[in-house]
Design goal:
alpha+beta, Ubiquitin-like (UB roll), five-stranded mixed sheet, 31 helices, 56% helix, globular, binds manganese (II) ion
Length: 595
């Protein structure tokens, strides 16, 4: 689309003002005369927003809608619907999540800069820099300009923008969710491609942000596009489960009685799994019929200790299945998910899964980082700041990753990997599964990693390449400052090249590479450099179909170029202080001239 960069405020562009009338007054007039009827296009959006944030003024939503509608007018989705239905639906998803007005405004406008003549500058003038930052964060780089790198560059840009304001990611997720819902009209190939990309990057991002509410639907819609037959098989199974509701009602009723006897105030309800989760367990367990256990959730109306009281009551009522109890309260998942999980041998000897959590844990589990916007006065903000720790780490590599493809690779790797928790220096540290003491050392700090010498796991000295296990207690020994200051001539030992062969975390890998880039090839002696410099010249000569019978011409050239000896010239070639091709051209010149 053509972009009219010279234009000022968009209102002038979107709705040409009457002569002598300021654009703003014209717009205000149109808004005031706009009836707040149920059939107004943003009516549903405003209602969803005010259902959660009662006091908000919907005027700015109407204004954003008017601009977006004007800008996208004449554009249509592949389904044939007017384009505006898409940003409106994205804003609706954000509203139902409980996001603030600023997010909804940005959601309504999220495709204007990318797909219409509305400029970022005009957007900033009309709606302020916060909205402009959010829209810019989700605006794709032009494929025509960036070519193949466009996708990776776009994700990198989005992550950087999210580092300043996490709402960028929430809009992006809502955008993708609506696009995935409406993928039906696309070709099978493009449905699969988009579903796969969603599964690779956006679903794990959603999981890290802790927004289970969005993730469930994303999961299911990915399954629908990747495995349509499996999706319908599981959906059929869930639709007709004879006696299922009555069974769960009985489990819920008995649980309520047991909790009341133990004086635990709690809500108890069936908690059905989503289709993707049933499918995943079915495949993982190699089951022929969908594997789906009845499940209930207990939300206690009290502190975390009440969760353990509730657990005791449930375990007294029904025998727990050994090995199925998990305490995610004492040690939360990497996205800070907290709950108690157990399985019990329920009525009629059927296994029943039970989730137990507090109301606050439930809000965090459902809404993750979005909880701060949905429940602005609730506590837990500190925990959610921690939830974004991984984002900060991702941004750290961003500074180290030279190209966007490498960055995207690291991001995928970090998001996809199964994780373990180990204990070091009295802290719980999350690492990718298969991580080694070196990964841990870099997690403790770049300097700890660079100076890492040895490690002890559960009290035993182990090789640095040993794989850590869940729950290991690890001590890292590093070269101390006194040791290295004893002899100032000796540079810190630094990481070993072989570490690159076993480290698991992209963070450690990037830090080791950075060290080698900064310390130009430590371990390469002068004689190696001479040998490699000579080989480099040999190679360059061959590209000119020439060779060297003796060192004599090189010796002469080094004199002519002012080097004290041939070795110094060869080292200079290796260090790229002088370009090999330049040397070779002069060499050929010299030889051809003297003959
Ligand atoms: Mn969009």
């Amino acid at each position: 689309m053509d972009v009219d960069a010279g234009r000022g405020g968009a209102l002038g562009g979107a709705l040409p003002a009457q002569p002598g009338e300021l654009p703003l007054t014209r717009r205000l007039r149109s808004l005031l005369s706009w009836p707040a009827a149920d059939n107004e296009p943003v009516g549903q959006l405003v209602r969803a927003h005010r259902a959660i944030h009662a006091g908000t003024d919907p005027a700015v939503l109407r204004r954003a809608y008017t601009i977006a509608e004007n800008m996208h007018r004449g554009q249509f989705r592949k389904s044939g619907e007017p384009y505006i239905t898409h940003p409106l639906a994205v804003a609706q998803i954000c509203a139902e999540l409980g996001m603030d007005t600023t997010t909804l405004v940005a959601a309504l406008l999220h495709d204007t800069v990318e797909d219409t003549r509305y400029t970022l500058q005009a957007l900033a003038e009309d709606f302020g820099h916060e909205v402009a930052h959010l829209v810019d964060g989700v605006t794709k780089f032009d494929k025509a300009f960036y070519g193949k790198a466009a996708e990776a560059e776009t994700i990198r840009k989005m992550i950087i923008a999210a580092g300043k304001d996490v709402r960028v990611l929430i809009i992006k997720l809502a955008d993708r969710l609506h696009n995935m819902r409406t993928l039906g009209v696309r070709s099978a190939a493009s449905r699969e491609r988009i579903a796969r990309k969603t599964q690779e990057v956006l679903v794990p991002l959603c999981d890290r942000l802790g927004i289970q509410n969005l993730k469930r639907e994303l999961d299911d819609v990915v399954l629908l596009h990747l495995e349509p037959e499996e999706h319908s098989r599981i959906a059929r199974h869930v639709h007709d489960r004879p006696g299922w509701d009555a069974y769960l009602a009985d489990v819920v009723a008995q649980t309520k009685v047991a909790l009341r006897r133990s004086r635990v105030d709690a809500e108890v309800a069936p908690r059905p799994r989503h289709l993707y989760s049933i499918w995943k367990d079915t495949v993982a367990g190699g089951h022929t019929v969908p594997y789906d256990l009845p499940r209930i959730m207990v939300v206690v109306d009290g502190p975390a200790t009440d969760c353990y009281a509730a657990l005791g009551a449930v375990h007294c009522l029904w025998r727990p299945v050994p090995g199925r109890f998990k305490d995610f309260i004492a040690s939360p998942k990497n996205n800070l998910y907290r709950s108690l999980h157990t399985s019990v041998c329920g009525p009629k000897n059927r296994t029943v899964e039970v989730l137990i959590r507090t109301a606050e844990m439930h809000r965090s589990a459902e809404y993750g980082v979005a909880a701060d916007f949905r429940f602005p006065r609730s506590n837990g903000a500190a925990a959610r700041a921690e939830q974004l720790d991984w984002l900060r780490r991702v941004l750290d590599w961003e500074q180290d990753a030279a190209d966007p493809a490498q960055f995207l690779q690291s991001l995928r790797c970090d998001l996809a990997e199964a994780q373990i928790q180990v204990v070091a220096e009295g802290r719980q540290i999350v690492l990718p599964a298969g991580a080694t003491p070196v990964d841990l050392a870099y997690e403790l700090g770049t300097d700890r990693g660079d100076r890492c010498l040895a490690a002890r796991i559960n009290g035993r000295l182990v090789p640095l390449s040993s794989e850590l296990d869940e729950g290991d207690v690890v001590e890292i020994f590093t070269e101390t400052d006194e040791e290295s200051s004893l002899d100032a001539e000796v540079a810190p030992r630094g990481p070993r090249r072989e570490w690159l062969g076993f480290v698991k975390s992209p963070h450690a890998q990037m830090q080791i590479n950075r060290w080698f880039a900064e310390h130009s090839e430590p371990g390469i002696s002068i004689s190696d450099k001479v040998r490699l410099g000579r080989a480099t010249i040999g190679l360059a000569l061959r590209q000119h179909n020439r060779g060297l019978a003796s060192d004599l011409p090189l010796l002469r050239l080094s004199e002519e170029l002012g080097y004290p000896d041939l070795e110094t010239l060869l080292v200079a070639v290796f260090d790229r202080a002088i370009e090999p091709d330049a040397v070779v051209r002069q060499l050929i010149d010299l030889v051809d001239h003297r003959q």
